[in-house]
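Researcher: Next entry in the queue.
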Amino acid sequence: MDPLSLVAMASTTFKGLQVLVSRGAEIEHVAQKLGHWYTLVSDINQAEREAENPPLFKKMFDGSSVEEQALNAARSRNGMIDEGNLIYIFDLGINAAQAQAEVFSYLQWENELVKQGKAPEHHHTVQWLEGCAEKWKHCPTDFANSRGFQIMDRTSLTNTPLLKDASDAA
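Model: Structure for this entry, 170 residues:
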């Protein structure tokens, strides 16, 4: 074969390989999108299951917990818990430096998963939140006792049914 034919054949082969690589990248992109959508559907399903049987921190606190609020706020602030949540954490008797360290550690773990091409799942966050709630559940009572506060109502900070007004019973 003459050199010109070889160059033309190599050029055609190279262009064909470029097209295959391009198509492979498109297929990979579609697979990533499908994976992302699958994760979102999984998170929605998990949220529905939790609505039927709420985890410990949801039972202990009405709505989101202090840990959940701090984590959500910290995600948008490069891992830093905002001042409002730090005050709330302090008022619950939780050491703010320890809470900040926990949030940093969890967000770092999430970031490492993402770097590995994996996605953190909803149940990971729930497990972390429940661990924090369990770890710090004694703090409000300890803080109140250390300050000499008398706890007059043990149900106002929980998701327990409200006591009926005595006038409603008549």
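Model: The CA atoms of residues 116 and 160 lie 42 Å apart.
Researcher: Noted, moving on.
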